[in-house]
């Protein structure tokens, strides 16, 4: 989804607790702290409108200039680089990128590890087309061969059956199908990078459970998204609130801002094991106007039980 404006990540430039105290003392920001009254603002949009809003977003930004490659991912999630250490020759590991957008996350992963296959989905056909063009523009033939995009709208349905980790899939997709060559039994990694915050809050547990179903036992879900009191949250006016810590932009897309407690409840609630969970607090400077910004993201790693 929306991209950060800095090249330094996973830092501790300031303490989140200090930011929280500052925000909670500021009367002009009080509306962010209030409990949510569903009758005080617009009714939450339907899942159909949610998906259409993101399709419209990607159509408007179809040139891809709005996005930058997320090269920091391999530093923050070194498992994607070292997953093949000690593996056999010719062994491929599988990644499911949920909400791939224009491919800004997929491309660094494919470039960084020649032994990874990426299955990438999005609810926007425009985004998938842009991701395909980005991958096709690369000179490395192996990258094109290891990229498999597909359409999926988690707000309406789950992942296709061939992607799910189950005994039945091992028996059904055993031979003679493209999926069986790399997807039987699920994937090794799921990446949720600035994707879950765009899903209506009430749909998040179902979406997370779907991601768990696609993972092999012991597989990892790698998470990064907007954190509570990020500067983009503080810009929203009271009439843009769609729920507690949930907001709608002018174009109909929405964004949720996570605290660690909510993250823990969501992922442990569907059976994940927490490995890492913390705030990433970064100070950055807008090069165009020199304005200093305090960004807050949530960084997490969760494992499917073996």
From TrEMBL:
It comes from the Eukaryota. CDD domains: AdoMet_MTases (cd02440). GO terms for biological process: methylation. Keywords: Methyltransferase, Transferase. Its EC number is 2.1.1.-. The keyword Transferase applies. GO terms for molecular function: RNA methyltransferase activity; S-adenosylmethionine-dependent methyltransferase activity. Pfam families: Methyltransf_23. Belongs to the methyltransferase superfamily. METL family. S-adenosyl-L-methionine-dependent methyltransferase. This is tRNA N(3)-methylcytidine methyltransferase. It comes from Kingdonia uniflora.
